[in-house]
Amino acid sequence: MTIPTLDATIGNTPLVRIQRLDRHLRHRGNQILAKLEGNNPAGSVKDRPAHSMLRYAEARGEIQPGDTLIEATSGNTGIALAMVAAMRGYRMVLIMPENASAERTATMRAFGAEIVHVTRAEGMEGARDLATRMEQAGEGKVLNQFANPDNPRAHFEGTGPEIWQATDGQITHFVSSMGTTGTIMGCSRYFKQQNPDIQIIGVQPEGESSIPGIRRWPQAYLPAIFEPGRVDRVMDVAAADAELMTRRLAAEEGIFAGVSSGGAMQVALRLAEELENATIVSIVCDRGDRYLSTGVFGAIE
């Protein structure tokens, strides 16, 4: 009998068909599929790059168990890194804005990570700057999800092939929210190698909207892994629309997810209004339980 270790459970998440949200569009012959990344062991799509970045850094001899790792995060990458660090024997220091949800911070601490907060005004840009300063001061090694090619590599090797196989190569459109951009970069690279006609749709916040997990970066902070040419179209989503779709996903589809997933699904439905006979795959980045205290699902009694 061979029982796998926890890292073997990362990936191979379900791809499910939306049943009710798109009923008014059925006459167009489209199907919308949701990739349930919340089924990963630490609860998000970020389990994939977290494991990839540590595993390949170890293989190259850049880090070894017992080392201190540092990373700036808004939540899901930090949770995933904290899990993988615990699994592989590293000290994990995570830097994040103070306005991150209580569930995210508590989950990171549960995995043994140490948390350093920057102010809400400093945001993720300030967190990234502090991580760099700490590394320069010799306080640890920054994995740097924003510039590390092992981030999109996880999706080129895992997420993309899983979707291609599950759809028998029939996928026509891929929709993903854009934050670090690792998911959309890795999947785009894989899909375009299989079929250059597959359309890659990126989701960004509309105007000044604030949506956890989706970012419109200032030019100076654009992730180094981001290649604009790998995205065929960028569609904006308002925070209110993303939140409404997040609630509808739970109440009408039974898919309990975070707000970035609601934003991506809202865009997938808008896209389906333009198309016929399309197979649209939308990434459901994480689970909704880490957003309960934000009020997006209503007040906690």
UniProtKB/TrEMBL annotation:
<keyword id="KW-0663">Pyridoxal phosphate</keyword>
<dbReference type="InterPro" id="IPR005858">
    <property type="entry name" value="CysM"/>
</dbReference>
<dbReference type="InterPro" id="IPR001216">
    <property type="entry name" value="P-phosphate_BS"/>
</dbReference>
<keyword id="KW-0808">Transferase</keyword>
<protein>
    <recommendedName>
        <fullName>Cysteine synthase</fullName>
        <ecNumber>2.5.1.47</ecNumber>
    </recommendedName>
</protein>
<dbReference type="InterPro" id="IPR036052">
    <property type="entry name" value="TrpB-like_PALP_sf"/>
</dbReference>
<dbReference type="Pfam" id="PF00291">
    <property type="entry name" value="PALP"/>
</dbReference>
<dbReference type="InterPro" id="IPR005856">
    <property type="entry name" value="Cys_synth"/>
</dbReference>
<comment type="pathway">
    <text>Amino-acid biosynthesis; L-cysteine biosynthesis; L-cysteine from L-serine: step 2/2.</text>
</comment>
<feature type="binding site">
    <location>
        <begin position="179"/>
        <end position="183"/>
    </location>
    <ligand>
        <name>pyridoxal 5'-phosphate</name>
    </ligand>
</feature>
<dbReference type="GO" id="GO:0006535">
    <property type="term" value="P:cysteine biosynthetic process from serine"/>
</dbReference>
<dbReference type="GO" id="GO:0004124">
    <property type="term" value="F:cysteine synthase activity"/>
</dbReference>
<feature type="binding site">
    <location>
        <position position="260"/>
    </location>
    <ligand>
        <name>pyridoxal 5'-phosphate</name>
    </ligand>
</feature>
<feature type="binding site">
    <location>
        <position position="76"/>
    </location>
    <ligand>
        <name>pyridoxal 5'-phosphate</name>
    </ligand>
</feature>
<dbReference type="InterPro" id="IPR050214">
    <property type="entry name" value="Cys_Synth/Cystath_Beta-Synth"/>
</dbReference>
<feature type="domain" description="Tryptophan synthase beta chain-like PALP">
    <location>
        <begin position="9"/>
        <end position="286"/>
    </location>
</feature>
<comment type="similarity">
    <text>Belongs to the cysteine synthase/cystathionine beta-synthase family.</text>
</comment>
<keyword id="KW-0028">Amino-acid biosynthesis</keyword>
<keyword id="KW-0198">Cysteine biosynthesis</keyword>
<feature type="modified residue" description="N6-(pyridoxal phosphate)lysine">
    <location>
        <position position="46"/>
    </location>
</feature>
<dbReference type="InterPro" id="IPR001926">
    <property type="entry name" value="TrpB-like_PALP"/>
</dbReference>
